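Incident review: delayed structure delivery

Summary: a single-chain prediction request sat in the queue longer than the usual turnaround. Root cause was a stuck worker, restarted by the on-call engineer. No data loss occurred. The affected request and its eventual output are reproduced below so the record is complete for anyone auditing the incident later.

Affected input:
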Amino acid sequence: MRFIAFFTLALPLWAPLATAADAARDETRDALLREQQELNERAEALADQQATTQRLLEQQQAYLDALEKEIQSLKAAPESDQKN
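Output delivered after worker restart:
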């Protein structure tokens, strides 16, 4: 009988605690979801940046290769052609 009386008195105190725990759990879940979304966005931005960097490096290498080819052709040309 005492247990029932205690339970009856404690029940109104338990409901707000359970609600607070549910709210805290939901808030934590939402924070984790937001953090995951931010991480996904950062990963996508980094992937885009990496692709752009790779493309620019390839363009730079092509330019350097063309310069090297031009230098080699100038070295191979007779001196009379270089004076003109």
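Verification: The mean pLDDT is 85.
Action items: add queue-age alerting; document worker restart procedure.
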